[in-house]
Amino acid sequence: MSSREHILSAVRRAAAPDVPRPSAFSGWQRFEEPLAHFARMLGEVGGTLVRVISEDALRDSVASLEVVAKAKKVASLVPEAHPGTVRLAGVEDPHQLASVEVAVLRGAFGVAENGAVWVPGAALGARRALLFVCQHLVLVVDPADVVPTLHEAYARLRFEGPNFGCFVAGPSKTADIEQALVIGAHGARSATVFLVG
Amino acid sequence: MTPHAKRAAAYVANTARMHWHDKALWHVREKRDRAAATVPEWEALRTQAAALKAHTLSRLGEYLEAFEANARKLGAEVHWAVDAEEHNRVVLGILKERGLSRLVKSKSMLTEECHLNGFLEKHGVDVIDSDLGERIVQLARETPSHIVLPAIHKKKEEIGELFFQHLKTDKGASDPKYLTEAARGHLRERFLAADAGLTGVNFAIAETGGIVVCTNEGNADLGASLPRVHIASLGVEKLIPKAEDLPVFLRLLARSATGQPVTSYTSHFHGPRPGGELHLVIVDNGRSALLASATHRRALSCIRCGACMNTCPVFRRSGGHSYGATVPGPIGSVLSPSADAKRYAGLPFASSLCGSCTDVCPVKIDLHHQLLVWRQELGEAGLTPLSKRLAARLGSFVLQRPWLYRLVGWLGRAALRRLPRALLYLPLNAWGRQRELPPAPARSFRARFKKALR
Description:
The structure holds two protein chains of two kinds. Chain A is α/β, with parallel strands linked by helices. Helices cover 24% and strands 23% of the residues of chain A. Chain A has a single domain, classed as 3-Layer(aba) Sandwich (Rossmann fold). Chain A has helices at 3-14, 34-44, 55-63, 66-70, 130-133, 150-156; strands spanning 48-52, 74-76, 102-106, 109-111, 116-120, 136-141, 146-147, 163-168, 173-174, 182-183, 190-196. Chain A is globular and about 65 Å long. By secondary structure, chain B is an alpha/beta fold. Chain B is built from 22 helices and ten strands.
């Protein structure tokens, strides 16, 4: 008997009599001002929120971010926010991205309850490491796309075919040394979310 | 004394350190309370999570097959391992077949349980743990003392000394920010040099064939995105039916673990990245045996948040290593005896049965009840010390005979009043080792009750 058969028959033998699936979860919290809550929670998870009124303002505001102004290597998939100084087209080996200082990416939506932004991997493809290897992360989100909780977030997501996606809540962090919070463990040292419009 | 009690005695001998450890974990517990209080539907979420897990476990075979089929459709390779040894051989096989020898790992309690690192190192694979806490214990040649906070037992000065030896940091430096920065530089080199990455799995979605991995550091994500080959090891209990079930668990997990609203990174991997490989290793290693136990199968619902450890008065004071098991604390004391009843027979006694673990468990595992049941089961199997069994039998004999109970009560009160201290606190009196015996009441409860009735 293969290990597969062995395990499957063992769990079938062992399982309890059928327990029905509970009905769908309902009745979760609402926020009077989801955007304000998103801003507060993003701050709590160590990120920064910047609100701009137009694409022009977005470009100026991104360019004036200290980490962007100082950076030589900016990889951008949001041309209206930053033209980028690193060519991403044609990069098949993610190791080529190791020296990227700032990554500018589009977030599909934000989640008010926890400050997370869903970053779909479709535009990144083989280069998804960019999201984690960059020193600083800039995410651009439409304020109309801030949902209250993870329940609404998953109602928006479809997982069809091979894909990658990640909820990013602020910068990388750790508290593994005496519970002292340190920002910038392995991933981005800062995360700035721009809401445009 | 049980092995746990012996190791705990050694740990608490350093009173200052015990209080330091206790305080650090209680701080995490308080953060958990504050986070839970921000979600009005917290209790309903716990109930839903428990119900979803109970449902999934009752149809685990079906969900495992669906997960396998859907993961394959996405281009992942699925491997099955009956036990730890097979898991390790599968992982080594994947590496050897491709000529890979530099593996960067993120946190996976399953690979700790399988003792993967030692096995791979013996076969010439360079294994680096990339979670900061795990890297610390790896450098110290120790094991994690907590499933979420692997190095919670170490002081920053000790970590500074370790990093001075291994990472060439300044002698005497102990600032967490400085040490973390040093680890970041050191590990980034390893991430870039690795030719394979291994991660654990928080949730495996049957309906989509995808896996979800949660980290704060971004280490799992780097390990799964830089090298071409990604291996993910998961126990059979990681299955959930649908992606729409994820919010229920994700809203509970980080809040229960550290009081954060969510981890920094919650990565959803559906198939390998373009040009890469994804290997999923599904492991039983005793889980189907646990599933067969009507009492203990609920323990398989555990989502490894560590809340039961942070709240446990025994864990907080005795430290994770005192348990001598891969998973310590209340959940570890429930899981471990099922893997090796003889070796871990002492663990269900490493509890005051206060029930705090049950109160904080996000998937409502009845932990303290399970610990009590284990005590009975281990007693019946003759795996508890003779002294415990004899005492229980004596107690049972007395409690079944009211006249004897009265007599023993009278004798006890008389003894408490008259016997000299030296006799009362003989080594035989385990209770009196750290505690004072209560003063003898003037009259028994029975006598007072009778009088009150009159």
